[in-house]
Write a structure and sequence with these properties.
The complex is a heterotrimer of chains A (about 240), B (about 625) and C (about 260).
Chain A lengths: L4 H33 L6 E2 L1 E9 L2 E13 L2 H6 L11 E3 L3 E4 L3 E9 L22 E3 L2 E3 L7 E8 L11 E6 L22 E8 L4 E6 L23 E6 L1
Parallel strand pairs in A: 1-5, 3-6, 5-13
Antiparallel strand pairs in A: 2-3, 3-4, 6-11, 7-8, 7-11, 9-10, 9-12, 12-13
Chain B lengths: L25 H21 L6 H23 L3 H7 L6 H7 L16 H29 L10 H21 L4 H10 L8 H23 L13 H4 L3 H29 L12 H32 L13 H35 L6 H15 L17 H10 L1 H15 L8 H24 L1 H7 L3 H31 L5 H28 L13 H31 L44
Chain C lengths: L14 H10 L1 H28 L6 H33 L18 H36 L4 E8 L2 E6 L4 E3 L2 E4 L4 E7 L4 E5 L6 E3 L5 E5 L5 E7 L12 E6 L1 H10 L6
Parallel strand pairs in C: 1-5, 4-10
Antiparallel strand pairs in C: 1-2, 2-3, 5-8, 6-7, 6-9, 9-10
Helix pairs in contact in C: 2-3, 3-4
Classes of the chains: A alpha+beta (about 240), B mainly alpha (about 625), C alpha+beta (about 260).
Chain lengths: ~240, ~625, ~260
């Protein structure tokens, strides 16, 4: 223990500086992690339309968003979407959707990937859309066989007292070589990649934060194929902000 | 560390000039380790399809083990055994050199066999690990300050949770037995060193090699599994998981070596006359703890080897589709996991039991009850693992028996309380820093113990299992009780280990910051758990926002208190008041040796005629 | 607590005298008063804490869970009181100074005290064990009795969504709706890694394992919304693996089943 007051003063100042330094170091780690957490993709804002639609006697404004599902980086690039760094299957142009509240949202998905079977057949059903259907290349369907799926768009979130529940599941039909002739050319007629166009609509509730992920196991080589791409953000999962 | 103010040894410094051992140190270890690791990595990688997860796992795991091996070769860990194998053991001068005789600070960076050097190495290493783990805890609480996971992504959050967990568990396992078990324990029993000095150095440096491996998890994408690393999630996890697997396997080797060494030392090297009923209670507690770790850790190691095989070689230990089972992992894990919490707790408690008589100036109340308490806890702790699996659905009919064994642990735990309270009773405690730790322990362990009784009862566990309530409970026992015990031990033995007194006022400030912050943090977490917030969630419903905010405030308070503690330690180590040989007036042997403690501790080995608790007015 | 100083010249006092003398000691009385204080603190804690913070009781199981936690807090209150009372008393006797103070009384042990302490803690442990076992038994008897009339729900956890299949009704949904006062059996399974099925307000929980069905049962007793969470870390979106549902009147439940395209059974 120091004896003279000067020593004590020096000790106190030293201690204070040390504590501040310590807090600064920890904060620096925090800033770094927060920086790493920043979403490299810009959020995709739904395009609002001036039209309205009446469902069950209530009027809803309309909005729409267009997304693509690409089997790899090259395909995404060919569709004008500069993707994340890993060469994985991915949604684009962004995995963060911002949707207006209390709105009839129509999502159009151009899908280009092949596929196999789901881990859980439930996700072959269309759930939570208006009318319980989705439209594949012009035909309304309520479900597709669980082994004909390429990916799913499964939107869910925390059930809380402060935000409305929102659950949407849309299975996306796979692209297979043997039904090549039936493809509709999508987006770009000149591309080598042909796929399906899926549209579906759902109603958003009040403001809230939700997440979505793909329920088709596409993380190769890992247990139940849910590792790798399925365990990372920005490819086969993302968030939905209703604002 | 400075020795300027203390008399230094006058013995000539051994200098075996031509010997390789004079040229090796931590730096050469790191260079050779890095060469081994990167060499292996690039060599193995070239022939593999690195887009396949199994191949990536294989290459990374082998590279990590090669780092560890390379480091140990580079620091000279195998020179002794190798020379012995070819029939030319180290010369006497080389052995003295290896013990760090007269080498000053540089011996802390060498493969040094002196138990006191190993103790200091452990102390600094543990403080670094606690610092890292604590920083991660601050990050976790920052993310939970409000709903929405606004600070970090769920990927980073899951890694924070898992790496905070495993860093703290590793640190807490060695927090008391590392520094005090190595530095103090041999002196306490009147031995010249540990039974196996080279193994002692090995245990530290093997542990050291695990630290960079664990840190590499951050650069490989983190771990999504928490520290329990439940399969099959761990089999599914990305490349960061390899770092976890390798860390545990390396750490298990270190624990086995250290455990065998400490046990052998205490069994065979006690001073003349130190019968089993004259052994200081810290020695008993630490020995029971490491002896308990010897059978416990291999199961963790085995579970990790199986995980590694599932991840690299397509085995299916944990894949139900091919006859494996996730329950197998849970069993292996908890057969280690529950003894392990007592491996952590016992040395901390034993350090406190060593402290109480000294500061109350009374004999330890019922030495036999203390030993029965330790032995009872250790014995029962191997029979309770499935209480972590009440809700797993595995054979619910065994929940009853496991509930019985678990609740029986409250009986030996009660004895621990009795011993400490009985020693305190009718004494007038000398309220120094170590003594404050005793009171904090009593309160924290009581809360931890009572909530443990709820959790061990199956019906209550129906609700509480997997909730924040569990997290709060085990932080009360592991941090509130065990870490408090270890910090009290640090305050108590600091004069002996560094030759200087720990700055008292800074210690008090730190103590109150940490303890008050701790109560606030985990009261908030008990509430969040009772409200129904699951553990390990990056995001939560808005209904839990107040309890979580309170917890975060408490966590920041602890953080500041811990930084003050670090300051107190660093400042006192450099410039603190010179400590007398026996500042506390204690009767155990470590307080009879001067500072710096001479190479072989005692000029003349002591002879023991009574236990070290002969305090008290004669009637 | 301790044997007492007494003069060697006098006749050794009888155990009864010694005991009365201990009780009259100032230290014992002060520690006792502090002990009463801490006991009351824990009684209040038991009385207020769990009922205040735990969610609405909506099933038979939740009711017994909460009752057990409240009762255990009451039971442990005197133990906490004893420990903290003694600790606080000695804390108040503390002394400062830079050199070790005088020695206290040289009490090595107190045989009767150790025995009494061990017996009392054993009795408390026994009480907790018996209580738990009785509850377990009540639970499994109820399950056996209700098995025939129970509603069966097959729960599947997949990363990171819960789904519920009602086999008798022929529907599959993502929200858990249940009729009131009808026993329900959950058969829980996972499509991938381990999850833990936790309908919070119903107070039951069981892990979901792949290809191993685990079973848990309860009877909802109150109308209102419920939360279903995952209580086992399951990867990326573990925190978001939640869904909701309602405990409904039987009529409302039947109507909901019909609306989902199922048939009532």
């Amino acid at each position: 223990m120091t004896t003279s007051t000067e020593n004590r003063k020096r000790f106190s100042i030293g201690g204070l500086v040390f504590v501040l330094l310590g807090v600064a170091v920890v904060s620096l780690v925090g800033v770094l992690l927060h920086h790493l957490s920043a979403d490299p993709q810009k959020p995709l804002y739904a395009t609002k339309s001036s039209q309205t639609i009446s469902i069950d006697g209530k009027d809803y404004a309309k909005a729409s968003a267009v997304l693509g599902v690409y089997p790899d980086k090259a395909t995404a690039a060919e569709h004008g979407y500069k993707s994340n760094n890993k060469d994985w299957v991915q949604y684009g142009p962004s995995t963060h959707l911002v949707l207006p509240a209390h709105t009839y949202v129509t999502v159009t998905l151009h899908v280009y990937d092949s596929g196999e079977a789901l881990n859980h057949a439930y996700f072959g059903k269309v759930v939570g859309t208006v009318g319980g259907t989705m439209n594949i290349d012009g035909t309304d369907v309520t479900n597709i066989p669980y082994d004909q799926v390429q990916h799913t768009f499964t939107l869910h979130g925390l059930p809380t007292s402060t935000q409305d529940p929102l659950f949407v599941n849309v299975p996306l039909p796979r692209v297979a070589t043997d039904d090549k002739d039936n493809f509709l050319p999508t987006k770009d007629a000149g591309t080598n990649y042909k796929g399906h166009t899926v549209t579906f609509s759902f109603l958003t509730g009040g403001a809230g934060e939700y997440v979505w992920n793909c329920e088709y196991p596409c993380g190769d080589g890992t247990y139940r194929k849910f590792g790798a791409v399925m365990g990372q953000l920005g490819y086969m999962s993302g968030k939905v902000t209703v604002a | 560390m400075t020795t300027l103010d203390h008399p230094t040894s006058t013995r000539p410094i051994p200098n075996p000039e031509k010997s390789l051992i004079t040229k090796l140190h931590m730096g050469t270890g790191m260079v050779v380790g890095a060469i081994f690791a990167f060499g292996t990595y690039f060599w193995l990688r070239s022939g593999q399809d690195m887009t396949v997860a199994h191949n990536v796992n294989k290459v990374l795991l082998i590279s990590m083990f090669m780092w560890s091996l390379g480091f140990l070769i580079g620091i000279g860990a195998f020179i002794g055994p190798f020379r012995w194998l070819i029939g030319k053991d180290l010369t006497a001068e080389e052995q003295l050199y290896l013990a760090g005789d007269g080498q000053g600070v540089s011996r802390y960076f060498r493969y040094c066999t002196d138990h006191k050097v190993v103790g200091i190495q452990y102390l600094v290493g543990v403080m670094a690990m606690l610092g890292v783990g604590g920083t991660l805890a601050m990050m976790i609480r920052t993310n939970l300050i409000s709903p929405g996971s606004k600070f970090v992504t769920p990927v980073i959050y899951n890694s924070l949770v898992g790496l905070h967990g495993i860093t703290m568990i590793v640190a807490m396992i060695v927090v008391a037995t590392g520094p005090f078990g190595n530095f103090i324990l041999p002196i306490m029993i009147g031995a010249r060193d540990m039974a196996f000095p080279r193994l002692n150095a090995l245990s530290w440096w093997v542990l050291f090699t695990a630290i960079p491996v664990l840190c590499s998890a951050w650069f490989l994408g983190g771990i999504p599994t928490g520290w329990t690393a439940y399969a099959p999630l761990s089999v599914q996890a990305g490349p960061g998981m390899n770092a976890f697997v390798a860390t545990i396997i390396i750490f298990a080797v270190s624990t086995a070596v250290a455990g065998a060494n400490i046990t052998a030392t205490v069994v065979t090297m006690r001073a003349k006359g130190m019968k089993w009923n004259r052994v200081p209670i810290f020695v008993i507690g630490a020995t029971i703890s490491v002896a308990l770790a010897i059978p416990a850790f291999p199961t963790f190691m085995v579970s990790m080897i199986m995980t590694a095989l599932d991840r690299t070689a397509n085995t299916t230990y944990f894949d139900a589709q091919f006859g494996g089972s996730g329950w197998l992992y849970a069993h292996l894990f908890w057969i280690m996991g529950h003894p392990e919490v007592y491996v952590i707790l016992l040395p901390g408690v034993a350090a406190l039991m060593e402290i109480v008589p000294v500061f109350v100036r009374k004999p330890l109340f019922s030495y036999n009850a203390a030993i029965m308490g330790f032995a009872g806890i250790a014995g029962l702790s191997v029979l309770v693992w499935a209480h972590h699996m009440y809700m797993s659905g595995w054979l619910p009919m065994l929940n009853g028996p496991f509930m019985i064994t678990t609740e029986m642990i409250s009986i030996p735990t009660g004895l621990i309380f009795l011993v400490i309270l009985g020693t305190l009773w009718r004494g007038k405690p000398w309220m120094k820093l170590p003594m404050l730790g005793v009171y904090a322990f009593l309160w924290n362990m009581l809360i931890g113990g009572v909530t443990g009784v709820y959790l061990s009862d199956v019906p209550a566990d129906n609700y509480l299992h997997g909730s924040m309530y569990v997290t709060a409970h085990f932080h009360y026992t592991l941090m509130g009780a065990a870490l408090t015990g270890a910090l009290a031990g640090l305050a108590y033995w600091f004069p002996k280990m560094t030759g200087r007194m720990l700055h008292e006022r800074a210690g008090y400030i730190s103590f109150w910051f940490v303890q008050i912050g701790f109560q606030v943090l985990f009261l908030g977490m008990f509430i969040a758990g009772a409200e129904g917030q699951p553990r390990r969630v990056a995001d939560f419903s808005a209904m839990y926002k107040y309890s979580n905010m309170i917890s975060t405030m408490g966590a920041y308070t602890i953080g500041i208190g811990m930084i003050v503690m670090l300051w107190a330690v660093i400042h006192s180590w450099r410039k603190g008041a010179i400590a007398p040989i026996n500042p506390w007036g204690a009767k155990t042997l470590e307080w009879t040796v001067p500072f710096p403690v001479p190479l072989e501790n005692f000029d003349e080995l002591p002879v023991i005629t009574s236990d070290p608790y002969g305090y008290g007015r004669s009637k | 607590m301790s044997n007492h100083d007494h003069d060697e010249e006098q006749l050794p006092p009888t155990p009864g005298e010694r005991f009365t003398k201990v009780l009259k000691g100032k230290d014992v009385q002060q520690a006792f008063a502090l002990g009463i204080f801490f006991t009351l603190v824990f009684v209040v804690l038991g009385w207020k804490f769990y009922p205040k913070w735990m969610p609405t009781i909506m099933s038979t199981d939740m009711k017994s869970n909460e009752a057990l936690m409240v009762a255990f807090t009451y039971i442990s209150a005197p133990i906490c009181g004893l420990v903290l009372g003694m600790a606080a008393y000695t804390f108040l006797q503390r002394q400062r100074g830079d050199t070790p103070p005088e020695d206290g009384p040289g009490i090595r042990t107190n045989g009767p005290m150790v025995i009494v302490w061990t017996v009392v803690t054993s009795l408390f442990a026994l009480l907790a064990i018996i209580w738990g076992i009785v509850e377990l038994n009540v639970g499994s008897e109820a399950a056996a009795a209700e098995a025939k009339t129970a509603l069966v729900v097959n729960v599947t956890g997949s990363q990171w969504v819960w789904t519920f299949e009602y086999p008798a009704q022929g529907i599959e949904t993502n929200e858990l709706n249940l009729p009131i006062d009808r026993p329900v059996i959950f058969n829980v399974i996972s499509a991938d890694v381990n999850h833990s099925f936790w309908p919070v307000q119903l107070g039951v929980k069981v892990d979901a394992n792949r290809l191993e069905t685990t079973v848990v049962h309860t009877t909802p007793t109150r109308l209102g919304p419920i939360d279903v969470k995952c209580a086992e870390l399951c990867g990326l979106y573990h925190a978001y693996m939640e869904t909701g549902g309602n405990i409904m009147t039987t009529t409302n439940f039947d109507n909901w089943v019909t609306a989902q395209g199922g048939h009532n059974a």
